[in-house]
Amino acid sequence: MIGTITVVGLIVLAALIFFFIRARRQDQISDMMEKRRAGSRIVSKGELVSGRERIPVALALTEASFYYENPDLEANLDLPRLEEVEYDDELTTGHSVPQGTRALRLRSHGTAFEFILTVADATRWEQALPARRGDTPAARVG
How far is CA 68 from CA 15, 58, 65, 129, in A? Predict the structure, then answer.
């Protein structure tokens, strides 16, 4: 009986730790968004798609760069180096994005970077960073 209670207690403890870490990560992403907001045209949450994994990130667009960050990742792409900007209902793998979301796909040096955004955020991003193909000259953002 005590063994069963101990096992159940450990499972509950593990679940609480998992949810605490997850909530804390969301708070950290929100903090990163606030840090970027003053110098950015647009800031939102998104998910970086890496294979089958979706990594929560803070996204920000400045005059010169596109930033994607979380507590474990600080990365950016220089806007002049973006070859393509696309908004789509599918990932490059051919899988559809979840209902109520869109994919933002950026290509730089032949590598695709995909982010999942809510439809509302994708609409805002498309106004700030319009879609363009590799054969279209880069429009000045701003």
Answer: 28, 6, 10, 15
